[in-house]
Amino acid sequence: MEDSRRTILELISHGFRVEEIAAMYNTPVRTFYRRMKDMDISVRGKYSNITLDSLEQKITDISAENNRVGEKIIRARLQGQGDTVQRSRNRQAIQNTVGPRPRPPRLTRREYSSRAALSVWHGDGLHTFIE
């Protein structure tokens, strides 16, 4: 039992989600959570206890280097610095410091000019198989 506890803690520390670990053990997720509770294992222990102010300061430093970084890159950089932060806290700090990012423009449809309606066709090459 101690070996499996140590293995689960090791997998959690390497960034595996509980759902992935449960699949490795071929166990339903709810059963796996119950077994984790019996072994006194919590996923919450892997997150940093960093304050919101210092998290915002780190995010400001990261985005000062490159203003086009997104949430995933910021989260990865924070993990590289040794701070594993929940997604909700990460998003909140990003909103407070950088603000919402503008969405990229929508794709525009091409406009074709042709002599008459239905004179431009597209052949995908699969019509040769139809008999």
From TrEMBL:
Lineage: Eukaryota, Metazoa, Ecdysozoa, Arthropoda, Crustacea
Region spans: Disordered: 80-104
PANTHER family reported in the protein's UniProt record: CLR5 DOMAIN-CONTAINING PROTEIN-RELATED, EXPRESSED PROTEIN
Name the record gives this protein: Resolvase HTH domain-containing protein
Listed Polar residues bias regions: 81-98
